[in-house]
Amino acid sequence: MQRPDLGGFGGAWDWWLGFSEWGRSSVIYIEEHLRFGDSRAAVVIEADPIYVAAYTDELDCVAMLKFEPSEISLSELKVGQKLVTINTYDFTPGLGSDLHPGPGATGRFVNFHPLIADFLTDDGEPLCERRQTIGKDEWRRAFELGKEYRRLYPSMFRPGRAVHSFHATSDLTHKPTS
Question: From what superkingdom does this record's organism come (predicted)?
């Protein structure tokens, strides 16, 4: 794994929080998520700090993830750079408060948990294979939705850290800018 926060004291703390919350370690949870999740387009929208739009076709929308440069070991991310999000989904009542489903939403799920695979694994071949399954239209849609999301909701995002990217963290009561 490339994430420094999963090792050392921070990793031990996340392991304990994950173990106590899910009944297994965060590392095992992340490994299962990456192995069995849905591969979708993610695109860098801003590079400092790093904002990544993680797309889901199930809701036809993006979740905006924010990463601090110290949280990832990849250097020189560029706006428009293509990444891979691995998503798992939730169908419990209540739409994710930061999500705005588009016209292509399937109606099966109300929330999703995006993990940016490029930041979590060194295993290049499976990641490359997953990247190749994503079509050009999806990359374009993710980028367009991400730019629009940042314009309309500049203070709304989800923390990029893998164990925290399921919920938004912001003042969700503000009105979108026009």
Answer: Bacteria
Q: How far is CA 149 from CA 21, 77, 159, in A?
A: 31, 20, 15
pLDDT tens, residue by residue, 19-35:
444 455 566 667 776 77
Query: What pLDDT, in 10s, does the model give residues 31-90?
Result: 776 777 889 999 999 988 899 999 999 999 999 999 887 777 656 789 999 999 999 888
Interior/surface letters 21-50, b for 16+ CB within 10 angstroms, e for the rest: eeeebbbebbeebbeebebbbbbbbbeeeb
- In this predicted structure, the answer to whether residue 135 has a pLDDT above a threshold of 90 is yes
pTM of the model: 0.79
Strand 38-47 and strand 82-90: the pairing is antiparallel
Give the domains, in start order, of the chain with CATH numbers: 37-164 (2.40.410.10)
> Hey, what are 142's tokens?
């993710």
Q: Helix or strand or coil: residue 14?
A: helix
Per-residue pLDDT band at 150 (split at 50, 70, 90) = very high
Helix intervals (H) in 93-163: 124-132, 136-152
Q: How many CB atoms lie within 10 A of CB 8?
A: 9
Contact 82, 43 (CB under 8 A): yes
Q: Rounded to 5, what percent of the chain is helix, strand, coil?
A: 35, 25, 40
